[in-house]
Automatic annotation (TrEMBL):
Keywords: Cytoplasm, Gluconeogenesis, Glycolysis, Isomerase. This is Triosephosphate isomerase. It is found in: Cytoplasm. Pathway: Carbohydrate biosynthesis; gluconeogenesis; Carbohydrate degradation; glycolysis; D-glyceraldehyde 3-phosphate from glycerone phosphate: step 1/1. It comes from the Bacteria. GO terms for molecular function: triose-phosphate isomerase activity. Pfam families: TIM. The keyword Isomerase applies.
Amino acid sequence: MSTSGSSTGNGPLYIGVSTKMYMGYQASLRWLSEVRSIVDDRPGLGTGSGVQDSPIRVFVIPSFPVLEPATRILAGSPVLLGAQNCAWGDGPLTGEVSPGMLAELGVSLVEIGHAERRKLFGEDDAVVARKVRAAVGQSLTPLLCIGEPERIDAGAAAAFCVEQVRAATGGDSGLLRRLVLAYEPVWAIGAQEPAPPKHVNAVLAQIRAELGPDCPLIYGGSAGPGLLPQLPAADGLFLGRFAHDAANLGRVLDEALLLRQADAPARSSSSRS
Ligand SMILES: O=C(CO)COP(=O)(O)O
């Protein structure tokens, strides 16, 4: 998946959902079918063959066993398929899933370094960095999750996140360009409310200033309908629980489409100048 051309303001908006482990197998399939209908009902999201031209990139990240049937449910739609994790290679890694197998299945992006993986499964910066390289080596797009563990001010939070990105990429700007970054303040994950938009915009703007415009930077953490229009600094949203009711994903997609329609005249006039 190419992530080039993304930057705040006029690049594509990325809107995605992870089911984490909230759904069983059958419930995941039902949810994916609902997502499929919701996307089909919105022609502005484009088609499977035109996904690179769509102003909105929709992705879903179900559990591993659901990936293979998901490819059939989503066939011909513009929805990109992601995985929640990957191994740092293949071979003697019992119980893991290799990036190569994910690529073979039709997965295009893979979450790496989610806060739950870091906290509950002991994934440190070195493991995250190995996984990023392994994923890119199989032409997968790492959805690298970053975020401060506790409530701190925006400047300190941004510095923390930039360090996490540098640790994950080893400062390799070529690698940075291959990522989608998901800013997810750990304290806002699984909460009642997202982080305050003022904080999120300030952190995203500072991360952007440090890292440059080359990779999309989206927000996650208790995100739902109504949030995206309040986050002009974000290139999209990474949703969890509040999009497990698929109708809410539809609402967020409508907001994203409206935002990109509102941008369209500015975009076409700037491309003429
Ligand atoms: O971690 C998240 C997405 O991966 C966010 O989850 P919640 O929206 O459920 O807080």
